[in-house]
Amino acid sequence: MSPPRHLHRGDRGESELRDVAFARSAPTYGRWISWIVVLVIGTNLLWLVATNPNFEWQVVLQWFTEESVLNGLQVTLGLTVVSMVLGTLLGLLLGVWRLSENRLLRGVAGLYIWFFRGTPLLVQLIFWYNLSTLFPVLSLTLPWTDMTLASWNTNDLITPLTAAIAGLALNEAAYMAEIIRAGLLSVDSGQVETTQAFGMSRSRALRRIIIPQAMRSIIPPTGNQLISMIKATSLVSVIAMGDLLYSVQAIYNRTFEIIPMLMVAVIWYLLITSVLNLGQSAIERYYARGTRRVTSTPRRAAAVAGDVQPQQEER
């Protein structure tokens, strides 16, 4: 439809500028300035670190793939995997108990979570390592009798490895229980009612319906816990467990090259956490299928406006 004849050429140009089809995004000068500032500061910091002789990068390269360092790295990864698996399984049980209608199960799970979240992990590791001072012998006896079914020397059972696994796994279970509980609560209550209407048992409903839907809310914080577990394994060095940090400390206690050896540990931790971040992102995208938001870009908006305008003109 052509504009009325009484409109002047200037009025016609102004009306065209007000048309959505001719809209343009505002200049992004602030974005470019922020990029330039960040690049300048980041490049300057990298240059200072790379050219600082006190870091002794040649020593870092010398010890980066040394055998004792790699052995400590294997211990760190092994502790992380075992402790995370055990902590997740126990946390799943505790999370389900927290939502149980049984008051006893809710109370036991709440007491467990309260204790292990309320005490420092370092204290728990030292406690497990020194358990023999409280119980020199661990035994299975019948309640209120002197009949012993089996007994073990505590020092034989509680080695640095078992103390590290027990401390890390039991502490992790308390946090995973709350993560899993929050994930289960994120599922629509109508799903639970539907499973009850079909006569499904609670355990089967959890396996088939509730837990798969809750994974979208459970995966991100679980990934964060896994990365935190990688770093938390450094605490086992206080109980003489030969992890990555302990191996590095053993080297700089002989060579007195403290900063370079600490940089070896820092770089290895950064590499591991970077790989875990990539894996977490891939898993999140897998469970977010069908729920992604369609983001609008200027090119997409212009294409949509171009498709809509001819339709309006045809009308």
CATH superfamily: MetI-like
Q: Count up the helices.
A: 13
Low-confidence stretches: 294-299, 301-305, 307-315
Q: What letter string, H or E per element, gives the SSE order?
A: HHHHHHEEHHHHHHH
Strand order of the largest sheet: 1-2
Shape: flat
User: What is the residue-averaged pLDDT?
Assistant: 83
- What portion of residues is helical? over 70%
> CATH fold name, please?
MetI-like fold
Number of strands: 2
Radius of gyration: 30 Å
What separation lies between the terminal Cα atoms?
9 Å
The main pleated sheet reads as:
2 strands, antiparallel
Count of folded domains: 1
CATH architecture: Orthogonal Bundle
* Estimated structural class: mainly alpha
In a nutshell, what does this entry contain?
The protein has 315 residues and is mainly α. It has helices at residues 9-17, 29-51, 57-63, 67-98, 103-118, 121-129, 154-157, 160-185, 189-197, 202-232, 244-255, 258-287, 298-314; strands spanning 137-141, 148-153.
Write the layout of secondary structure elements.
Blueprint: H1 9-17, H2 29-51, H3 57-63, H4 67-98, H5 103-118, H6 121-129, E1 137-141, E2 148-153, H7 154-157, H8 160-185, H9 189-197, H10 202-232, H11 244-255, H12 258-287, H13 298-314
